UniProtKB/TrEMBL annotation:
Family to which the UniProt record says this protein belongs: Belongs to the peptidase M13 family.
Basic and acidic residues biased stretches: 24-34
Upper lineage: Eukaryota, Fungi, Dikarya, Basidiomycota, Agaricomycotina
Every Peptidase M13 C-terminal domain range: 676-838
GO biological process, any: protein processing
Name of the protein this chain belongs to: Metalloprotease
Gene3D superfamilies according to UniProt: Collagenase (Catalytic Domain), Neutral endopeptidase , domain2
Region feature (Disordered): 1-34, 377-396
SUPFAM superfamilies: Metalloproteases ('zincins'), catalytic domain
Species, as recorded: Lentinus brumalis
Amino acid sequence: MADTRAPRPSTDEESAPLLQNVSHPDDGPASQHEEPTFFDRLAAVVQEPLSPLTKLLLVATLLFLLLSSIFIGLFAGAQHKINSGAGRGQTTVTTTTTATATTTAQVTTTAVSTTTVLIPAPAPTGPPVQPVCISPSCISVASSVLASLDESQDPCENFYDFANGGWLKANPIPSDKGSFGHFEEIALQNRRLLQQILSEDASSHFSAASALASDPYDEVLLKKLRGLYGSCMDEDHLDDLGEAPLRDMAKKIRELFRGKTTVVDAESTASEKERDRLTATVAYLHSRGVSALFDYSIDGDAGNDPNFMSLWLSQGDLGLPSKEYYEEDSVVELYRDVLERLLLTLDDEDDSMDVKPAQEPGLVVHEERLRVWPPWPWPPWGDDDDGGEKPENRSQRAKKLSTAIIEFEKKIANASLDLDVLYQDPLATYNPVPFKNVSDSLPGFDFATYFSAFAPRSFPATIILTSTTYLSDLSRILNDTDKATLEAYFVTRAGLELSPYLGLDTEAWKAVRSLQEVLSGIKKGAVGDRAEYCIARTESALGFALGRYFVREAFGGASRETATKVITDVIETFKKSLRNLDWMDKESAAGAARKADALRVKVGYPLSPNTEDPRSIANWYARVKINSDTFFENMVSARVADQIRTWLQLGKQRDPEAWEMYASTVNAYYNPPANEHAFDSAGRLYNQDGKLEEWWTNKTSEGFKVRQKCIVDQFSNYTIDDGKGGEIHVNGNLTSGENIGDSGLIQAYRAWKAQYNDEKEFLLPGLNYTREQMFFISFARSWAQNIKPAAAVARVRTDPHSPNRFRVHGTVSNIPEFAAAFNCSSKAKLNPPQEKRCIFW
């Protein structure tokens, strides 16, 4: 279920394994007698003779730690030495790979290692004047860069297409996807390795590590992993089952909502019985990770004790991605059709209870009269000639209910916070209140019983609300909604969320897929590789277990320790840069330095659960029962275990070693209360202990706000094509945190310029660009992405990241060094006057 307060991963998927710590075969003897510099240490990690998959993951994983908008940028300055003594004297190459990180407060971390060419200034281009590197690795990197460029474009006017035009032409969007970018390309490489782990027999796959293969805990883990993956791949069995698993769940929902399986006091009033039924239904859905009415998360109490795990309540997910879609007639009509198809598919004709719209909720219809729909004679409680209305058939009823569901969801949407507030304003969304206040705000719901359903270790005396008005508004909406609509809403919530676990020939799967196709721009009827889908689902359910074997295949040597050392060096560089910010006074800079020291550095793979200890991981997934050949049931089992695990954290102290992502996931997040935080528009409000407070001075805060408004206005002026002849503006408020994070690129550039050594630079063959130009080209290449209009619209409306084109153009236009590197004229689009630039760092 959606969790708006939990650490949010980046939507930019970056996937590749970490590197081994071995020497590069091209390293010459000269390097063996030199004290290793910061860049040499980075080179030892990045430039190892492993697979491209291995090389890419380390750089991307390093960014996992660079959770500050500034930390990221500084990483981009890394130079590495890959050849010494090759050719005539010195031969070096610097390659650039960039990766992104996102979380609750939504800041993107960009890690860059740069391809550098030694060309004399000031000319922007020209033939190399020193020997070039002709090793296979250098030729490969140079070929990749050349293939990505479109040199017919003016870099000062359209830098994104200049750096990526070749790649964009060579990498069209697959028909089953709404977008395809550089990160997705890398992710495919990771999935090939994961597929090998999931497909091979344990004894053969780990023949070189007999101890691992014979460990009983590893046997259990591998059995679960391959059992889940195998049940997903068994499409014939999925087709044989049809909608049965989802029908069973829909039946359970109806039974709970109608009170059939709900234990209630015989002396309870009618309103109390309705409350108990509503509570039981919502608890059942939430226990399976299905969002309904509201959502919850367990995280630190940011305003009091960031390490005390507390309950947060927030607004629930909508059936459509955002409020705006409910105003589009074509989308609403499609959504209504999807809901109608789900209701017809999941209808229970033989149930002895029928809750009709506009009728009393307790009406009982004899079971025998429901064997044929509509039951006849009608009405079932009297004579057909007594003036009763003609019965509705199933199709009419489903159509009416689907329309009612949409009206219900519209009301919830209107009561919900806008996403820019939810994601970017931690002060407005931190509202701790006593339990009684929550209960009084929604009297038709029994929160005490709801909590007990999850068996938390301690009852939450205080609950943190993201909105002070949502629950009371929800109470009013529920009172105005008939019971038939609520029941249909709960059934379709499960259908929308869990239908993808059914066979592709089922009506429920096809209905939900038709909505996804329109919202994402996917070609109608196009289905991707089944193995790719099943790998992703297995990772989502058992990611720490899968990560254990991924690490054993992809990691080696001391790469993890070396990478950690690189990160700590970056932190020290950041602290030194604080003194140069004219808008940050000494007091605030000192606090920022303390915050940098408190950063929790997490590289490579987690120690909680311990990737190196199979017992630790087996205990983590002990509640996941993969003992069925039914993929649907296996995935639901994993969801239930995940929700129980979440609730068991309530009232405990935070586990400082806990991770929110898996070793096989090359991405990043930041969680401010956990000291995995940043200095963007939201992260700046958390101090070095992860506590929510205004720790900057007023002067520094005002200086930041001026720059923040500048960047909000800048990005709000960017527009995308909606695919229907119109344009949609980027939400500068929603994306401000990420845009500020991207602006840290300037610090990366300065750090790189200050630390590289001309005598250790190497040239790539065929690239007639200066080292400064290659820095920016490498940055832009990381954001290469083809995206369909429908997917772009969804991103603008829901994603705190700006479209990739604007992440490039918006960032470089605020950096004077970019214009200088490419000799841009004063009238060039990406070289605005200094007073119009939004400069933070």
